[in-house]
């Protein structure tokens, strides 16, 4: 497993990061282009806040954890300045998207814009401790907590009272964000919040009959027999499991580490396409046709997140099943998504693993899952004990 | 071409309509089930207003135009009663969806719920002239016109002023709805409205460089170089062209008939998958990756609408190109979508024309496009002059 570390580091630093350095910076209006075709050409100039925040985070993190390269810090500042100047409405909520010049296009209906902006400013503050970065990160985080019970606010189309569902995405992102914001928040807030989130993800959204995590449940955690209640997103479960595993390792909670690994393995088994390989994007837990027409497609991020999850699972327990899955995921992912010819990775394949959209970035894919995943695997496996996995068992 | 008429009539009356008669009626709570699996079993009980209105329309229309079967009238009344009782909020806007019992699930953010409800009540009034049906149809139609400039109202997520786009869907549906509502509305309103709609569809949304119709344009009709502005929906264009052709035939406007046919033929050429056959769901007019992950899928409705459009085009002009396209579409559509074994038609195929979702109805597919299309083709070709297409030329 240790040998993978070098490969992932090399891919991160020699292929993926240079691609974004070269193609994504908007020198004219600030911020980042993310709609990049196979060759890196910009095919659309809109700026999506999720991806502005994520790229800001990425370059801050690399500067913090990999090497103090001035060009990385400059990229992070470049993203943060654009977000600071154009990203928020008068109440401090982050818009969903802006045009190239920074004028708002889509209202702040989506709380994940705020999550990824907070993540970006939080990480940048670590390496460039300007008060305003800390202020924006803290205020935004507080705003997320305030909006937590009704994140879509007035943009919610659900009629209240008939079928009030709880959605898994926000606690899942908060499990990661609370660790990312650790240096900026009260220790007691982090403690109580992470405890609450673990309980929510592993208690409320966990579905004992299948051993999986549901995307939407009734308020009391019970199963909702409707499209939203039946949908399973294997990649989402697996990503959440490494977030929770990080919290568990930090707490020294071995039992929780093991639970996250079992659920991740369940999701891999359940989500894997036995015919063509790769993880399905969505499935219906009762085997009915899912609502999502893209259900059978293979997306980059579930596979990258699964690699991270299995690397961490192996490092924490030496569990052979995790090693086997890592090998299988590695072969599939590198063969299917990586673009040998023009750099970076494709994002969207059809069920047969043929490229469906020949883009390197778009509305949802930016400088995030691929480089974060490469970094996580490289760091996780860097010091793993070869042939002595028992040594790193918790 | 005339021979097709019998086949389409038979498919309508012996396969498709019996399927919905048998499986879609909710005897317990009223309204219709539309989430039906391959065999006709209900897999989800939510009631989507689009499909409640459309099925009400379908059975009313069949009773009006095909045969005065009591069971068809009963189905229409069954749908209308449910819509009347549960469909609207206090302001008379139709919700998007209800649960099985009729309690609102999703708010009235979508004006097409109102369009299809008005269409259903309007058609039912023709065959069952109760004042309340006319009232609901008229009031709802007026409400649609009032909401026309800002159909999503408070649920719109677009930030006003940055990139105000006009969307093609509402004028397109109104071109059909205004004819469907003819018996209930002022003649002068219909005249001015249809004139306005023709101008909007054929003027504002028409894109001269490609000969196609755009889904979204700037307020002045100019091209918007963004995802929404670049997207082409070939099936949508072709469906709109038969709506406008109906208006043109009614006005005796031969030049307009010919323009609709040229645009429909452009859309067929442009949308056809040269490798696997069938019409793509979405394309980007500049050849960039579209936003819609389902872009390369083959959906039932564009093909059914294309059959209707080519049948009408042939009947109106005898144009051989339309006959050739009809033959080609017929072979492809009947071979790919029709389920010989369990009745009705599949709705969603992947690019290779394999069944992607083995359902007969769902959130968007109900008792509508297939039976309406079969009816339209059967009626259109019933009296077409064999071997003498010149005779029916305008």
Number of domains of chain A: 1
CATH level-two architecture of chain A: Alpha/alpha barrel
Summarize the amount of helix of chain A as a percent range: 40-55%
* Content-based structural category of chain A: mainly alpha
Mass-distribution shape of chain A: globular
What fold name stands as the CATH topology of chain A? Answer: Glycosyltransferase
Please count the beta strands of chain A (DSSP E, at least 2 residues each): 15
Oligomer: homodimer
GO molecular function (chains A, B): isomerase activity
GO biological process, one term (chains A, B): carbohydrate metabolic process
Keywords (chains A, B): Isomerase
Protein name (chains A, B): AGE family epimerase/isomerase
Set down the secondary structure blueprint.
2 copies of one chain form a homodimer.
Chain A (H helix, E strand, L loop, with lengths): L1 H22 L11 E3 L4 E3 L2 E2 H17 L4 H17 L10 E2 L5 E3 L4 H17 L3 H17 L17 E3 L1 H12 L6 H18 L1 E2 L4 E2 L2 E3 L8 H4 E2 L1 H18 L2 H18 L11 E2 L13 E2 H18 L2 H18 L10 E2 L5 E3 L1 E3 L7 H14 L12
Antiparallel strand pairs in A: 1-2, 1-15, 3-4, 4-5, 6-9, 7-8, 10-11, 12-13, 13-14
Helix pairs in contact in A: 1-13, 2-3, 2-4, 3-4, 4-5, 4-6, 6-7, 6-9, 9-10, 9-11, 10-11, 11-12, 11-13
GO molecular function (chains A, B): isomerase activity
Keywords (chains A, B): Isomerase
Family (chains A, B): Belongs to the N-acylglucosamine 2-epimerase family.
């Amino acid at each position: 497993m240790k040998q993978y570390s070098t490969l992932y580091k090399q891919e991160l630093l020699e292929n993926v990061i240079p691609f974004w350095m070269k193609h994504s910076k908007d020198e004219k209006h600030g911020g980042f282009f993310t709609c990049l075709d196979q060759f890196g050409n910009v095919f659309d100039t809109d700026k999506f806040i999720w991806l502005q925040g994520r790229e800001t985070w990425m370059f801050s993190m690399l500067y913090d954890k990999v090497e103090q390269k001035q060009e990385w810090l400059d990229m992070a500042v470049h993203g943060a300045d654009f977000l600071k100047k154009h990203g928020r409405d008068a109440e401090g909520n982050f818009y969903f998207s802006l045009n190239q010049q920074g004028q708002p296009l889509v209202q702040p209906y989506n709380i994940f814009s705020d999550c990824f902006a907070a993540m970006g400013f939080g990480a940048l503050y670590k390496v460039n401790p300007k008060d305003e970065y800390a202020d924006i990160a803290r205020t935004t985080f507080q705003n997320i907590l305030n909006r937590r019970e009704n994140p879509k606010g007035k943009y919610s189309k659900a009629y209240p009272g008939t079928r009030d569902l709880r959605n898994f995405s926000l606690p899942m992102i908060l499990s990661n964000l609370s660790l990312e914001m650790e240096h900026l928040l009260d220790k007691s807030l982090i403690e109580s919040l992470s405890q609450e989130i673990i309980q929510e993800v592993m208690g409320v959204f966990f579905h004992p009959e299948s051993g999986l995590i549901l995307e939407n449940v009734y308020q009391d955690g019970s199963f909702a027999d409707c499209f939203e209640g039946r949908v399973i997103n294997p990649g989402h479960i697996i990503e959440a499991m490494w977030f929770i595993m990080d919290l568990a390792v930090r707490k020294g909670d071995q039992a929780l580490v093991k639970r996250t690994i079992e659920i991740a393995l369940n999701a891999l088994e359940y989500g894997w396409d036995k015919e063509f390989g790769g993880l399905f994007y969505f499935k219906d837990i009762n085997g009915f046709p899912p609502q999502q027409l893209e259900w059978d497609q293979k997306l980059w991020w579930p596979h990258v997140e699964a690699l991270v999850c299995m690397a961490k699972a192996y490092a924490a327990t030496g569990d052979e099943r995790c090693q086997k899955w890592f090998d299988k995921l590695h072969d599939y992912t590198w063969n299917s998504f990586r673009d040998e010819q023009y750099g970076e990775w494709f994002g969207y394949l059809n069920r047969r693993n043929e490229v469906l959209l020949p883009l390197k970035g778009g509305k949802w894919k930016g400088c995030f899952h691929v480089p974060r995943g490469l970094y996580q695997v490289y760091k996780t496996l860097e010091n793993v004990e070869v042939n002595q996995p028992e040594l790193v068992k918790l």
